[in-house]
Amino acid sequence: MNWILVGIVLTTFVVLGSSRITTRIKAVAIQGGLLSVLQFVARGSLFDIHGALLFGITFFIKTIIIPLLIFRSIRGISMRVDKEPKVSSHSLLLTLGLITTISFLNINTFPLAVGATISSLLIPSALTTVLTGLLILVTKTKATNQIIGFLILENGVFTFGMTIVSEFPTIVEVGVLLDILVGVFIMGIMIYQINRTFDDIDTKSLSLLGDA
Amino acid sequence: MVVIIMILVLLAFLALGMKDERWRPLLKKIMISGALLHNAATIALFFFRQQVAWKDYVSVDDISIIFTALISIIFTMVAIYSTSYLPLRRLSEVNESGMNIYVACMLFFLATMTLAVSTLHIGVLWIAIESTTLASAPLIYYRQNKRSLEAAWKYLLICSVGIALALLGIFFVVASTRGTGANLSLGSLIANARQFNPGLLRLGFILILIGFGTKMGLAPMHNWLPDAHSEAPSPISALLSATLLNCALLGIIRFFQICVAAGLAKFASDLLIIFGLFSLFVAAVFISFQKNYKRLLAYSSVEHMGIIALGMGIGADFASLLHVVGHSLTKALLFLTAGNILLLYKTKLAPDVSGLLRTSRPTGVLFTAGCLAVLGLPPFLPFISEFLILQKGISGGYTMAMVLYLLFLGIIFVSVTKTILPMVRGKQKISVNMKLPATLILPPMILLLIVVFLGIYLPHNVASLVDLAARSISRIFG
Questions:
Q1: What is the count of structural domains for chain B?
Q2: What domain range is B327 assigned to?
């Protein structure tokens, strides 16, 4: 279980550190895969129809469909490398390092009672992932990057959810996943429209509205 | 309720497929029949209180009935209004998404909102509220221009992130139930709330307040709201402001109920008061120099959400719920009338509009009356609720909060009248020759009549329903 958690944290580093959008999407896909395995492990029982089904659905949505959707929406958009980061990737990585350190230093102060089957690294990793998602959302301006930030945030929230995995009914989890899927689908359509309207997917050009 | 939600979703899929121009009349009929079906279901709800439809996933209590009724009335009016508004707007705006998308999204939107207000399961509640965002984003982008694209993107991203935080909050709340045997239905959560871990519950409530507060339009998370409301087609603005914000509010109310039951009433109310007053402050500032009348109305929604949060915070539950009713009806009326003004003058800027009473007398009267109502003047319904909140606040010892409340309301009153009166009165700068059909006048007229009627005489049934709902919020508090 610890290895999976370490993997989840490392993928967030990959997302922040790489300059290619395709690498980022792949990293998010891997993170989704790790998350679905984590969910399977956290349930504790290996041969459980419920768990297997949920594993299948999570894996399918988070690792296959969502990345494909994002790839599809950026197809035909020329610049796959994002050149003009508002904040340099060095300082972003340093910030992420800081976030990780702080999250893991306070490992014992979180009030969440972690069950016996759950690793104590879970809460710090989840916190790191959530905060990274927010970091990406506030520093990146490209529409795709904002979606990736949103997905990482969502993955972090899901990792938190592992602490209560036994209480949550399957139907609700599937509903949550479906919502995210549709959300990404609509965001993908919007990226296409933003690109068509502005010849760019930088959300900096979305600045017409405001209070005069 | 389950049946009606399913029918709506089916109708929506059906509508999605009718892309061709020749299906237009049929699409309108589908939309209206969806609305009528919903009406029928709501009326049935009043008479046969079927408490549990499908476990706790779809099940109603007193609060749900009020919110469902509001959704039902307003959606019907908006649906009737849209049938003639959209063709008329097409004369001046070239781009649009097409009637099939419009009708399909409207029906999806209606279905998800109905689910959001008629569930007592906090997981399903989250799913439904998130789906309302997804169903309404294409509606905001209906005009397909740069401005609406920006508004829709902001709306989608800000609300999704907010709601992701709310999910985190729900996880914390669920984690706080550990060891008490409570499941995720509201009833069992409230019954066992005493034994919850208070630290986790507090954390959860903060996250949920921020998350659903984003959607509800509480400042400082309200940034998407003026953009979305001003760029969406007017009937959609009416729906967003009058029903969507209520759904998010309901999300907060549900968790407020849990906090009250857990003995954290003081903590949760203080948070609500702070957010409420801050929303009032932000609204007062931005309304004071607002030139775009649709944005003005949007900020007025921020203001009223602030009033409702403040009212819940000081324990005026009855007045707050009454204010929800008053605000929804009035704001729907105002946005629909704003749509008429847009049709007549083809501008959203208030200084360019003048002599509304001369151009179209009914629109002018409706707009003036609506604005007076939304400002809280008698004899309209919002006056009663705002006054009750004030009364409760002063008798409850919240003097400072009430002084600020009156101050902000005063500022808003002056600024709104300063903007609105020149629009309504004065000479016509440009002569407008356009006859508005009755379907554009009647829906807001009916809403106005309801607001006036409820303001003068609150029927016993309505009052007792709101009272019952209010009691369910503060069962232990009061």
A1: 1
A2: 2-473
Average pLDDT over residues B93-115: 85
Cα–Cα distance measured from residue A211 to residue B15, given in angstroms and rounded to the nearest whole number: 37
For residue A212, tell me if it sits in a domain.
no
Is the bond preceding residue B220 a cis peptide, omega within 30 degrees? yes
Distance from C-alpha of B72 to C-alpha of B172, rounded to nearest angstrom: 33
Does A206 reside within a domain?
no
Tell me, yes or no, whether A210 lies in a domain: no
Residue B452 pLDDT level (bands cut at 50, 70, 90): very high
The residue range of the domain holding A154 is 2-107+118-201
Query: Which residues from A are below 8 Å from B168, CB to CB?
Result: 130, 157, 160
Amino acid found at B78: V
Q: B373-409: per-residue pLDDT in tens? A: 999 888 899 999 999 999 999 998 899 999 999 999 9
ipTM of the complex: 0.91
Residue B50 — very low, low, confident or very high, per pLDDT cuts 50/70/90? low
In whole angstroms, give the CA distance from residue B112 to residue A114.
34
Q: By the CB < 8 Å criterion, does B16 face chain A? A: no
Please state whether beta strands B58-59 and B52-54 pair in parallel, antiparallel, or not at all (unpaired). antiparallel
The residue whose two tokens read 């009929």 is B29
Chain B segment 269-308 residues within 8 A of A by beta carbon are 286, 289-292, 295
